[in-house]
Sequence to fold (224 residues):
Amino acid sequence: EADIYQTPRYLVIGTGKKITLECSQTMGHDKMYWYQQDPGMELHLIHYSYGVNSTEKGDLSSESTVSRIRTEHFPLTLESARPSHTSQYLCASTGDTSVYGYTFGSGTRLTVV
Amino acid sequence: KQEVTQIPAALSVPEGENLVLNCSFTDSAIYNLQWFRQDPGKGLTSLLLIQSSQREQTSGRLNASLDKSSGRSTLYIAASQPGDSATYLCAVRGSWGKLQFGAGTQVVVTP
Fold:
């Protein structure tokens, strides 16, 4: 079944650790996105990609980085996690043409202690 | 710059009542509009996708209308149930490239 997967679902990690949040989709979508959302707050776009080897920063500045080496895979990395990075991270993808809607993953809830 | 507004911000109704959620947008040059549901601490679940050429979409108890010229969409949920309690988000996709979200309407359906 075509879908978008995020792992891990929950992550508690100590300050200073390097972490990678995984996002994979099986729909062959070129366009992929990372959003950050604090509890009860709006979604903020932090990174997006329109294809392999293409990455751009979103509307909200983030210390995280992303890569897009394969169409189906769009991981997000924090080199040195801090408590201020505690949030929910949501991955999404959509098809090239305007008729497509967006599909979201289940999210990763990150807690940095 | 596209701005998306959702009214009301919060809504509480007794079970069985119909829900009416409103979404307005400032730039009518959209490709489509999508309604999502979000449960606390979870991802977004797509409910309905309306293309710019369409007037409405229906799925079960859900019906969404779109009036592109006036920049409005309405989500109707018939005969609400406690399981409908969630935050509902509308989002528009246009030539600017990225999805633009409203702030959401938080719905509570009491038994």
Summary: Chain B has a mean pLDDT of 94. The interface with chain A takes residues 31-32, 34, 36, 40-46, 49, 51, 89, 91, 93, 98-99, 101, 103-104 of chain B (CB under 8 Å).
